[in-house]
Amino acid sequence: MRHDKAVMVIDLARRMAASAEGLTLDEMARDMSVGRRTAERMRDAVLMLFPQVEEVSDPPSKRWRIRGGLSAFEQAPTATEMLELTKSASARRAAGEPARAAALEGLERKLKAAMRSTTLNRMAPDLEALVRAETIAVQAGPRPHADESMLTAIRGAVLAQQPLGFTYSRPGAEPRRRSVAPCGVMFGRANYLVAADRETGRIQTFRLDRMSSVAPQEGVAMPPADFDLGVFASQSFGIYQDEIEDVAIRVAPEGADEARGWRWHPTQTLEEQADGAVIVRFRASGMRELAWHLFTWGQQAVILSPDRLKAVMAEELAAAGRALQQA
User: Fold this and answer.
1) Based on the number of CB atoms within 10 Å of its own CB, is 296 exposed (0-12), middle (13-18) or buried (19 or more)?
2) pTM
3) Region 266-276: what's the mean pLDDT?
């Protein structure tokens, strides 16, 4: 128990050193998952161990921060933390994203270079053994595109709040030059630029692998003031955005256990049924991607609502049937 408390105090100190503005007591309690009184005791322990802690007035609250960071000894990563960083880099490279993989590999080298040689030598055998013992299964799907120069241009436009110009090529359509207000990037099975139309403010998504000649433009182009990329991403079952609807899926008893452990959507609720089945409910857009997912459940999943999802599923089944007949 004493050891656990010491770890929590060091963790809090790291969080205080990592925050430019500092942490309030309420933020400490939230981040450490403790009550306010416990947060006060942990703060006092940090004050005793680290005299360089600064108290910052931020009415109506106070904040505490550690300027200048912590020493290499206090910041040494564990073998498990380094393993997860190595695995993340390997996963990005296996998924066809060398630029994002290189960024993680660069971070790994910097962390190792900052570590004491004795610490690194002690960690190396464990890290090597864990890397050999764990791997990431590569799943079938589109290869995401995240060209380093393109990401640099997008991020530059986002930070400078400048318009972003690019040529967009859709299958079966003539390439079209676009100018948008960039909001951010969503990474997934395919990577997408999220941007607002400069005239209407309508939020749109653009696949990065269909974009070319990407560059910031002169002027100012800000996303809508009330736009939140996290909220936008959570509204859809996948990437595609359309009308948000109430979804209800009944999963048969033989698939209920898997459904209970499945993350369908951030808004999901589960309703247990007398026969052992479960009804999954959530609000989302992206009915086509949801229909694609429901294919994997076979007869175990029955669509209760909305009717549009049923229609989309019928269309996809008909298209698959036509493809099978042509084969």
Assistant:
1) exposed
2) 0.56
3) 93
